[in-house]
Amino acid sequence: MSESAQVETNLVEYSVSEISGALKRVVEDSFSHVRVRGEISGYRGPHSSGHAYFALKDDRARIEAVIWRGTMSRLRFPPEEGMEVIATGKLTTYPGSSKYQIVIEQIEPAGAGALMALLEERRKKLAAEGLFDASRKQLLPYLPRVIGVVTSPTGAVIRDIIHRITDRFPLHVVVWPIRVQGETCGAEAAAAVRGFNALEAGGPALRPDIIIVARGGGSLEDLWGFNDEALVRAVAASDIPVISAVGHETDWTLIDHAADVRAPTPTGAAEMAVPVKAELEACIVTFGARLSGASSRLLDERRKALRGASRAIPSLDQLLAMPRRRFDEAAARLGRALTAETTRKRATFEGCARHIVPGVLSRRLDRARDRLRVPSTALPRDMQRLIEQRRTTGGRCADKLSVRSIEQRIAGGREKTSGLCRRLDGAMAISIERRQRRPGEAYRLLKTLSYTSVLERGFALVLDGKDAPVKRAAEVKPGQTLQIKFADDLVEAVAAGRIQSAARPKKPPSPPRGQGSLF
User: Fold this and answer.
1) Which long-range contacts (CB under 8 A, 24 or more apart) does 462-470 make?
2) What does the alpha-carbon distance between residue 517 and residue 405 come to, in Å, rounded to a whole number?
3) Which residues contact 186 (CB under 8 A, 6 or more apart)?
4) Where would I find the H helices in 313-357?
5) What is the CATH code for 16-109?
6) Comparing C-alpha atoms, which of 145, 164, 134 is closest to residue 245?
7) Does 302 have pLDDT greater than 90?
8) Neighbours of 65 (CB within 10 A)
């Protein structure tokens, strides 16, 4: 018993800190650089300090993980809950809780399958929001004046685009430089698209008519920045048509779905953006030749039509032939007609002359005297009768115009006028009395309906800064300057805030009898 106790006392004693430090050194020396594959669990985003704490797990084990703030800002793929990743870093221990953990220096999705799954999930999410709908697509302008290119300023892509545009149709090319690979690629491209849209037409900086987002080919990881959600939303919201020219023809990114047109290559984007100037010139020459030929053919057709119409019109001799013939015939008939007319007139005159003889005239005069003799005998009698009728009518008028009758009429008119004057005086007095009472009644009615009488009873009128009455407490904002009108003067006040409904009395006190609220 004593020997075993002596053996135990010969063991070296370690403190907890020494054991923890020794384990930390062993773990860090043995696993200074490892790659761990697992599923992210418990990720809630970066801590307030900028560090990220979570765990990597598989179906049988779990290991704590940490990403320091400096490393977090350099990651190409930010961590997401449930993502299967390959983390590169070193193992270490945390003596404070006797746990081991991996300090991650680099993180990437676990193969292309995970990236494709993440990409497909993001694509479905954005498609459900309608960002890829064909109805949102815009038509490219046929002859743009300025083209904006979002790409790297040092790569071969921008040189190919400028060279292709120069060959086809030289115009202004504005380059917005960005990184086409890395963790800041998507954010820079989105800022470039929004920046081009923010330019004003006719301003000091040229506003492009077309935007080309371009990059050369690469792997899925190289092109991942163009799958950024912020970039896709910026392209979908762009008022300027956008051509996506990212990668080769077989490469697809999310902005290819959101862009108005997808080009297979950056060079193809330049070809879509501008037409060929030589072809346009050839078309213009062709159209000019066709216009000239059409004008010539039209003039020839009009000349032929004019000649045909002129052949259908008769000559001057043909037009005057019939009138001349009718004139000659009329001239030939004129002499004979004059002779015949003279003979006929002479016969008529001789017939009339046979009736104008002294005997015939004497008989006509006798018949005329007989017709006049009968009226001449009846004329004195008719005149006498007419004079008697006139005298009778004149006597009647004289009776009416006698002095007595006129005096009677005047007396009756005076009585009627006196009655009308008395009635007029009475009516005028009543009308004047009514008109004198009307202003007083109107003043009493106005005073009764005016709100000033309400103010006299202890109420007040609240006005805002525009002298408009405030009817609801919800219209008053804290700190707003108000004017309170009392019966005698105005008082300015500042609203301190709205009183909570719990602090208000449930039932307002009843106003005194005979009074009421202005509002």
Assistant:
1) none
2) 78
3) 225, 226, 227, 228, 229, 230, 231
4) 316-355
5) 2.40.50.140
6) 164
7) yes
8) 26
Tokens of 377: 């005998």
Phi, psi dihedral angles at 495 (to 5 degrees): -75, 125
Long-range contacts of 116-125 (CB under 8 A, 24+ apart): 116/220, 118/80, 118/83, 119/220, 119/227, 119/254, 122/227, 122/229, 122/254, 123/254, 123/257
* Residues 288, 322: Cα–Cα separation, whole Å: 53
- Average pLDDT (444-457) is 75
Predicted confidence (pLDDT) per residue in 242-278, tens digit: 999 998 887 788 999 999 999 999 999 999 999 988 8
Long-range CB pairs of 463-466, under 8 A, 24+ apart, other chains included: none
Domain boundaries defined on the chain: 16-109, 142-275, 453-497
- Check if the beta carbon of residue 79 is closer than 8 Å to that of residue 52: yes
What's residue 299's pLDDT?
A: 94
Q: Yes or no: say if 102 and 91 are a contact pair by the CB < 8 Å rule.
A: yes
Distance CA 207, CA 204 (A): 9
For 463, the enclosing helix (H) or strand (E) is: strand 461-463
- The SS3 call for residue 261 is strand
Q: Which amino acid is at 159?
A: R
Residues of the chain with pLDDT > 70: what percent?
90
Tell me the fold of 142-275. Rossmann fold (3.40.50)
Cα–Cα distance for residue pair 246/215, rounded to 1 Å: 5
In this predicted structure, what is the pLDDT of residue 207?
93
Dump pLDDT digits (tens) for 1-12: 444 444 556 777
Task: Report the pLDDT value the prediction gives residue 406, as an integer from 0 to 100.
Answer: 77
Q: Which residues of 228-249 are buried (b: 16+ CB within 10 A; e: fewer)?
A: beebbbbbbebebbbbbbbbee
Please tell me the distance from the alpha carbon of residue 170 to that of residue 151, in angstroms, as a whole number: 19
Residue-level pLDDT at 514: 39
pTM score, whole prediction: 0.44
CA dihedral (180, 183, 184, 185) in degrees, to 10, reads 20
| Residue 512 pLDDT exceeds 50 | no
DSSP string, 209-270: SEEEEEE----TTTTGGGG-HHHHHHHHT-SS-EEEEES-TT---HHHHHSSEE-SSHHHHH
Phi, psi of 85 (to 5 degrees): -130, 165
Taking a C-beta distance cutoff of 8 angstroms, is the pair 483, 462 a contact? yes
Place of tokens 């959101």: 258
List the one residue out of 209, 207, 198 whose CA is nearest residue 139. 209
* Tokens encoding 161: 């685009």
Residue 308 has pLDDT above 60, yes or no: yes
- The span from the CA of 270 to the CA of 140, in Å, is 12
How long is the chain? 519
Q: How many Cβ atoms from other residues are within 10 Å of residue 193's Cβ?
A: 26
